[in-house]
Amino acid sequence: MPHPEVTHQPSPSSIAVGSEQVWPEHAAPVIVFGALRSGTTLLRLMLNAHPDLNNPGEVDFLTDHIRRAPDAPTGWRYDLAALRADRMFRAQQIEIPDGLDGLDLTHALLQRLAAKKARGLLCVSMHRDLPLAVELLPGTRVVHLLRDPRDVARSSVDMGWAGTLYHASDHWVRSELEWDRCRETLRPQDWVELHFEALMDAPEVELARICDFLGVPYSSTMLTYPEHSTYAAPNPKIVRQWVHGCASQDIKDLEGKIAPLMTARGYQPSAAPTQAPDRVRRVRLALRHKFGTWAFGVRNYGAVPFFGARISSKLRLTGLQRHFQRRIDAQIRRMLR
Asked: How many CB atoms lie within 10 A of CB 131?
């Protein structure tokens, strides 16, 4: 669908310096928020391909390792060792400035992320702790990316994060409950919702809508991301993969657990009425989940790193746990290439 050219003025989150835009020190970025496996990476590639947008990727490390500290100058303090060990932080290849901590460090890291692209409104991707991010970054706007939880769960099992669809739906539920909490605090003009299925079905229309929210004109370059990534062009055939890729009983188990929230998000259960698994079924699902994740971990990361990371974590042997986690992270990077 063609879109008229419009004159774009720098958004409130960017200022003009010469012929470029620079992200100011304490501006709030736009947060692209959605559950893991909901399409946030694909949307990041689309946004980053826009000449006036800048999405360097996932920044959950900004909230994963910060804690309230009433005695600190900004009221917050980072676990700097944990931040440096974080796989996603290391993947960004940015430095922690000497002498900075708390909110000062948060803003400095955002500045470094913004500098990875010469210009553009800064957008960052997150999967958790949205209420905390909104608290830390007042004035932020949110793009809420939503995907059918059955497809999210199916993909999560494929990634080895869970052994059953029943358990793989948990992180989708957590993300959506966090979104409910944040939506109550945000002004209507500060958030927009995007369904992954609609993005696959009509990418130009949906991206134009997102661009309008962000205050930039739609650009056809947003769909050129396959030229410089391993991701394929939008395809309606990749939605509803759960229909043919999952056992019917597994779908019933998942739907019996989260049907009210699914329905509230516009995803109708495949069978009615839904019924939660009984106690015997839940025990069987728990065993499948445990052994499924163990089998995936041993197969892909090796028995010593996989079990070593878990045992040392339970024993609070932080140094040893990070040693094993680095070995796991290295294998994950090789798998993702």
From this structure: 17
pTM given for the model: 0.86
The amino acid at 56:
P
Q: How confident is the model at residue 335 (pLDDT cuts 50, 70, 90)?
A: low
Residue 6 has pLDDT above 50, yes or no: no
CA distances in angstroms from 143 to 44, 113, 221, 320, listed in the order given: 11, 19, 20, 38
**What pLDDT was estimated at residue 239?**
94
Closest of 161, 160, 168 to residue 296, by C-alpha: 160
Share in percent of the chain as helix, strand, coil (round to 5): 55, 10, 35
CB 137 within 8 A of CB 107: no
Mean pLDDT for the chain overall? 89
- What percentage of the chain has pLDDT greater than the value 90? 81
Distance CA 83, CA 105 (A): 11
Name residue 33's beta-bridge partners.
126, 144
pLDDT over threshold 50, residue 16: no
With 0-12 / 13-18 / 19 or more C-beta atoms within 10 angstroms meaning exposed / middle / buried, residue 88 is middle
> What CA–CA distance (Å, rounded) separates 167 from 111?
37
Contact in structure between 46 and 55 (CB atoms under 8 Å): no
pLDDT at 226: 96
Beta carbons within 10 angstroms of residue 233's beta carbon: 10
Helix (H, G, I), strand (E, B) or coil at 33: strand
